[in-house]
């Protein structure tokens, strides 16, 4: 390496160490864009461009490295995989699939099957995505039942016939009984299709299995009781949950609201205090408690606090979401 290249490389690595990718790229570009005889480093620079959000440049570098006549076989696979990642990050699934297909001919790594499943999911080919997640489960020995169930739920949402929709939702619940979103859709579909007896038993298992993750979930369940059974039975069901020392704060919120409506503010406060002593505080409970007190200092302290957090990546949310927008995990957002 000549002195000119040396200088830029050193500076580039210095910036990399400081995680300043943009400036590192400036330095590397000075050397590598002119003479790319070191394909390994040239390809790594493409990956840095991707990390920096410059997908067009990442693709350009990786594709030109791939077409180099000097490319060794060992590097070819690496660059093809980088191109899959470039195009995925760029949101161009068709091209990502092209390189994935090529790569899969010689490489049987489970991760390739998983990426293909994810691409199919994003392209709304839910049936194919479910099959691929199943294949991934088998070869990687990882549990992907949640995602398989979610794919079938997505298929069900496209179904126009109630009977067929119920069938798909039941198939989904069989694979993963604990997904809140699938249970909700199942209950809604049963009530819409006048299968209320079955609907109420699904409501009961929704409560029994602690699937409520918002105050509205419980209000919705109460509506079904109102529609079909005695609403007092529902309130008692929740009361029993509270007496049985539930760890789910939404039952407490529901009961607090219940007592507030009955003008029994003391009882509402007590119920919240008892829960906080036992299980720790939740933002939604602190908000409710401060609203009962009508203490403006107290209210202001909590009113803008996010009530949910993704247990996989730590992203905070004001409202509940099924999929984490940051890490794309499924039903991992919990109340905090
Ligand atoms: Zn997340």
3D structure, described in words:
This protein is mainly α. It has 18 helices and 3 strands. Strands 2-1-3 form a 3-stranded antiparallel sheet, with no helix packed on it. Strand 1 (308-310) and strand 2 (316-317) form a beta hairpin. Helix 3 runs parallel beside helix 5. The longest helix is centred in the first third of the chain and has 18 residues, at 73-90. The radius of gyration is 27 Å and the shape is flat. 32% of the residues are buried. The mean pLDDT is 91.
Features:
3-stranded antiparallel β-sheet; 336 residues; single chain; mainly alpha; flat; binds zinc ion
Tell me the layout of helices and strands.
Blueprint: H1 3-17, H2 21-32, H3 39-51, H4 55-66, H5 73-90, H6 93-104, H7 110-122, H8 126-140, H9 145-158, H10 162-175, H11 180-192, H12 196-208, H13 215-228, H14 231-243, H15 249-261, H16 265-279, H17 283-293, H18 296-303, E1 308-310, E2 316-317, E3 333-335
Bound molecules: zinc ion.
The site of zinc ion (ZN) has 8 residues, from loops.
Average pLDDT value?
Answer: 91
Q: Give the SSE order as H and E letters.
A: HHHHHHHHHHHHHHHHHHEEE
Helix content: over 70%
Task: Note the overall shape.
Answer: flat
* Spans where pLDDT lies below 50 across 5 or more residues: none
Major sheet, described briefly? Answer: 3 strands, antiparallel
Q: Into which percentage range does the β-strand content fall?
A: under 5%
Computed over alpha carbons, the radius of gyration is 27 Å
State the total count of DSSP E strands. 3
Structural class designation = mainly alpha
* N- and C-termini, Cα separation: 55 Å
How many individual helices? 18
Spatial ordering of strands, largest sheet: 2-1-3
Small molecules in complex: zinc ion
